[in-house]
Write a structure and sequence with these properties.
The structure is a homodimer. Helix content of chain A is 53%, strand content 14%. By secondary structure, the first copy, chain A, is α/β, with parallel strands linked by helices. Chain A binds a DNA duplex through α7 and α9.
DNA sequence: TGCGATCTCCGCCAAAGGGAGGAGGAAGGT
DNA sequence: ACCTTCCTCCTCCCTTTGGCGGAGATCGCA
């Protein structure tokens, strides 16, 4: 039984390196490569792969957004976040978005292979460091759980320093609607300004993955 | 004539991918691999390679520091910064430290090969994006060093989400004065809003004790 | 002495942000 | 069918932000 894999990373070098690693095991077939989150989502629909190895820092559509959509739209596809930086923010964000694994790019080939096989069977795979971050987060939950999906969309853009008008354009809704969402966010987070909301969002892992 | 290369990157995947790329051209020989800047410096001394491909984000000793030391201690070795993120700060830092090139990891194999050959001959190689950042920097230096002491005071409070009125009270100055400082900060940092300034400040380590 | 940078403050004004409240529609659970 | 939540958009109104020009005071340096 083969495991069909899609690699999503904007760097050709990384894609090449991953393919080399995966060639070691005949069980793996790389069925597609994506250079950004949007392409990854498209390939997920077309190819319905078993596993997507997803970088988090990508243009057009970032990895976390892509993970969320893949999980919602292609529930049979498991996603492993594969990133170079270990940051509390992205670990929590990726897992919350539905990633079954979070691995660092300095993972050794054999460990990577084991993790992909486990993920294909629905088993959670976290690097030890990532697991530690997650535990710390769960123990002191400061999640914007009460925020709705749309509010989180708005907050994510707000945390990039975007103005209401820009957020409206990005989400293809009216500026008034954005203001409504922002008001709700400020109320729910208990902060007094968008700047405070942005800082809070960064702290808990929303915003651009960096 | 062969070009002797050292690869410095903390991620095994990336090193593997780069080696695959370089195998395409018989002129290249990868004589060593380093997992951090300190190792790269050690290898530079021992092997005296023609070119080092240096990641900037590495543990133990970061790439920019390593570039500076390699250039000072092994002047025959040229260094190409090869990084995943395009950030004004690192472009300027790497070039200032003595990098002869600054390439992104999403560079295509053939372009990478051409760049390494050029670098071995002492020719500058910058990705178009990196070149643009450099030009912008030279034209309008936007380092936080250009901020005055008082402006940094204001920025620090701003990065805590404080409003102009609160900043004024904290610094015991008038609100109008705060507005003047904020305007200068926005201008110097090249950002469009206080929220962006706050995020930038956090990124460079300003803000509350952290 | 003059020059330049910095810090302080002022007023004016346009734009953006944010509070309060209402309202329609879609989706899902009872 | 009903209720709730959410998303969407609206109006009215006020505050905050930020751009612009101007200005006096201090300090240090050429």
């Amino acid at each position: 039984m083969t495991i069909r894999i899609v690699i999503a990373d904007d760097h050709a070098v990384v894609r090449q390196g991953l393919k080399m690693f995966l060639l070691d095991d005949p069980e793996f077939v790389v069925v597609g490569e994506a250079q950004n989150g949007a392409e990854a989502l498209k390939l997920a629909h077309e190819l319905n792969p078993d596993v997507i190895l997803m970088d988090l820092l990508m243009p057009v559509m970032d990895g976390i957004t892509a993970i969320g959509r893949v999980r919602r739209e292609c529930p049979d596809t498991e996603v492993i976040a594969l990133t170079s930086v270990l940051e509390d923010a992205s670990v929590v964000g990726a897992v919350r978005a539905g990633a079954i694994g979070y691995l660092l790019k300095d993972t050794q080939a054999d460990e990577l292979i084991r993790s992909i096989k486990a993920a294909a069977n629905g088993q959670v795979q976290l690097s030890p460091q990532a697991a530690a971050r997650l535990v710390r987060e769960v123990r002191a939950p400061e999640s914007p759980e009460s925020l709705t999906e749309r509010e989180i969309d708005v907050l994510r853009l707000l945390a990039q320093g975007k103005a209401n008008k820009e957020i409206a354009q990005a989400l293809v809704i009216g500026e008034n609607t954005v203001k409504t969402h922002v008001s709700s966010i400020l109320l729910k987070l208990g902060v007094q300004s968008r700047t405070q909301a942005a800082l809070y969002a960064r702290q808990i892992g929303l915003g651009p993955v960096d």
